[in-house]
Amino acid sequence: MESLLGRLPRMLKPIPLLLSVPETLNGHEINRWIEQYDESLGIATVEAVQMSGPALVGKMNQLLEKHDAIMCIAVDSLYELREQLANQAKVMTGNNPWGIIPSEGAAGLVVCRKNVVETLKLEPLAEFGYLAVNDNPVNARNMFHLVQQASMHIDNFGEVYTDMTNLRSHTEDYGFALGAKAEQFINPQQPKRINSLWGTMAHVHQ
Known about the structure:
Radius of gyration: 19 Å
Distance between the termini: 26 Å
Order of helices and strands: HEHEHEHEHHEHHE
Number of strands: 6
Low-confidence stretches: 196-206
Helix content: 25-40%
Shape: flat
Structural class: alpha/beta
Largest sheet: 4 strands, mixed
């Protein structure tokens, strides 16, 4: 967060913060952390949610209807669930090469309205071009359908960022989805190179 604030133009401060946290995090700890931040540190308001994936992106878009820009940070911790995952035989071991590696991580970004970007002459790293959400269970059929839909709007998918956890079912579903429009991904003949970032995004591992 401090890194994002340090690079944020002065005109966008103080900025609202949307914080996505896992259910394993104690509510009192979150509130105590939130109380430490105020406008003097560059944060206008803090809203903590337990959302993930497309739902979190949708929430960011909603907030942009009220604000010129928002900062969003998502925190996740499979490490807190290590005993539960181990009991369910979902942790990667010598006998279970397709298991999950319990770990922790966080990621953040700042999103702005297009007119604000243009007015302040900012150089964005990316922009929203197309968003499709399927609320049904994650499986090969639904992933295939999303890829087919996207191919009608996007000529080239570029790099792919996924919520892969090393589970065999995820890997197989992912490979099946790539087959829907493999030619529109980078390195179509090398599926492992198509996927640029592996890991979990908030609660999708459940």
